[in-house]
Design brief:
By secondary structure, this protein is of the alpha/beta class. It is 57% helix and 11% strand. The protein contains 19 helices and nine strands. Helix 1 runs antiparallel to helix 5, helix 10 crosses helix 19 and helix 11 packs parallel to helix 15.
Amino acid sequence: MNSRFLSGLWLLLALGALIFGLQAGPTVTEATPAGTTVLAPTAWIIPALVIILGLTGLNLVSADRPVVLARLLRRLRERPALFWFVILLYLTLAVGWWVYRAQPTNGRLLTPLELCYLCAAGWLFVFLIGYDMTSPTLRTMGGKLATSKATGLLLMLTTALVIFWGAEAYLRIFYITTDAYGFTAMNYWWYQNFYFKDLNSLGYRDYEPLPDEPGITRIAIVGDSFTAGHGISNIDETFPQALEKLLGQGYDVNTVAQSGWDSIDHTAWLNAYYENIAPRQPQVVVLSYYLNDIDYLLTGEADPNTAFDFLDLNTPGGWFVLNFFVPNYIYYNIAQFTQPARNTNFTDRLIRAHQDDAIWAQHEPYLQQFHQWCADHDARLIVMLWPQLAAIPQSQVALQRVSDFFAAQSNTTVVNLSPLLEAYPTRDLLVNRFDSHPSVLANRIAAEALYETIRAGE
């Protein structure tokens, strides 16, 4: 290296690769949207470190650089347009491989293996641009590029890659968020980084249940992604936790909810929950009901999920969309979710299902089963009804049928959140612009409504 700065940077990257390489384990567990895989990618570390440390040490102790390496670089630099393209290709492959394999995202620290790889990749980049580079060579390359027809194309390609990787970095840092239907890579990594880290020993996004104490009132909140806090990164801002904070000492609020649960799931999982922590039976049970709790009965054209198209992930395009945030964002959040008809069809199918007597006749027994569990366990039942937050007035015909059913049951209170929520702009009620799950504000409104209802019944 003729530049002191590049020589120092080269040495630091070599030391970084060594330090992090020694910390990296022999295997790594890789989480991907397709599942979790145990790989052994560290076989490259030892030969890579040997080459890195050998060449770096030789450069430091000897003024004579290896002739073969210098000759190869000189020949490449004699064609500066090709040299430029090789650098772009190398950076794209090096960064792309890291992003594809490691999926770096906000909320997850880089592993020693990743840091070793990045140091090694950076070391090779400095080697390519600085090894045996002299000022005359640099001036000659600049002169050739000034007259080359390829320079314009290379500038366009460089600009496109800078924009792509800049956008990719932005999305991975600032846009780890959910979508309404769990389609996107952003949604997958939000669950990996924010949802699963808050699971308790029972597998629910909640703190550990408190032990039984004299005078403690135990409250179970049963539901789906609305209850689990889909899109709410801070667990304390979900309505079950906000409710527990409002109630204060003497209460233990237990979250019994998973994304995707329907009415067919609620009773069995509620029973299993309290079998696991028996004899801690709840005095109050809250059923958080949303319109899609009926969609387990909807098939074919009536299935609301068929309002959306799924990309074939086995194609090259599907692979690209699955593993990189920029095409994922473009495909799902623009091509899919900017079409209002799709969201409207999703909501309309759920509303029509509640009005269909044949479907309701199949749905009602599961609601009755849930009420019966509460009656058998001497628990007061509160049914909290969520409208489609972007279609509150349209949701009422469906919610009214659910409300009428539970209002006729003993020891049951129905809380329709619609009058409280419709006082706010829709955008303030949604967790983000592409996700119709409740925002922090909507969760707080739900917690306050439950607080008033629980206190009023004491």
